[in-house]
Amino acid sequence: MDFLSCIEQTISSNYKVNSRNTLKEDKASGRQEIKYEQSGKLLVYSFDAVASGIPEPFPFYKNFPGLKIVSDYIIFTNRKSDNKPFVLIFELKKSKSPNKQLWATKQFCNYLIERMNNVFKENFEPEIRMIGLVEGMKTRSRVDDIKYNNGIFHTPLRFFKIKDLLI
Predict the structure, then answer these.
(1) What pTM does this model have?
(2) What is the Cα–Cα distance from 27 to 95, expressed in whole angstroms?
(3) Alpha-carbon span 78 to 84, nearest angstrom
C-alpha cells in the first residue's frame, strides 16, 4: 500500500481538511490565512480541536498544561521526483514562537508512522518538516531562502509552494 493510502486508512476522516489551498486560523486575536500551491496529491489534517470544532484528538490525556498541544495542520505528501514521503507540520502564529507545538506534533507524527508501519507491514521513513508561519516575523521572506534550522523553518510568508518545502 502506498504512503498516502496508509495515512487515509490510519487517521479518522474527522480530522481531514478540505483546505482549498489555504491554511487558516480564526482566533480572538484575529484571523490568519496562508495560501499554498499544490503539486501532486496531498492530504491535509487538523487536530486543533478548539479552533475547528472537531472531536478531541487526545481524549486519553489529562488536562495537564502542555500535554495536549498540537500544531494547526499536518500535510502528508510525496516528493514528485522520487516519491519520497514527507510530513509537513504547520503552526500559524501572530508573533510568539511556534516551537512547542511543532515539536509536540513531530512526536505525534513519529508515533503515528510507527503504528502505521507496524499495522500495514510497511517501512515508511518520511522526512518530517516543521514550518512556523509567524505573521509578525521581520526576517527573510523569499521562498528561495528556505533553510531548516534544527528541523524548523520560521517564515512570515503568506504564500508558498509545497514543492519548495520538500528539500
Answers:
(1) 0.84
(2) 13
(3) 5
Alpha carbons 100 and 109: distance in angstroms, whole number: 14
Q: Is 137 exposed, middle or buried, given 0-12, 13-18 or 19+ CB atoms closer than 10 A? A: middle
Average pLDDT in the 133-162 region?
Answer: 62
Separation CA 23–CA 91 (nearest Å): 10
Helices (H), 14-144: 49-52, 99-120
Measured in residues, the chain has a length of 167
User: For 19-23, 35-39, 142-146, which range has the lowest pLDDT when averaged over its residues?
Assistant: 142-146
Answer whether 43's CB lies under 8 Å from 77's CB. Answer: yes
Confirm if 69 and 104 have CB atoms less than 8 A apart. Answer: yes
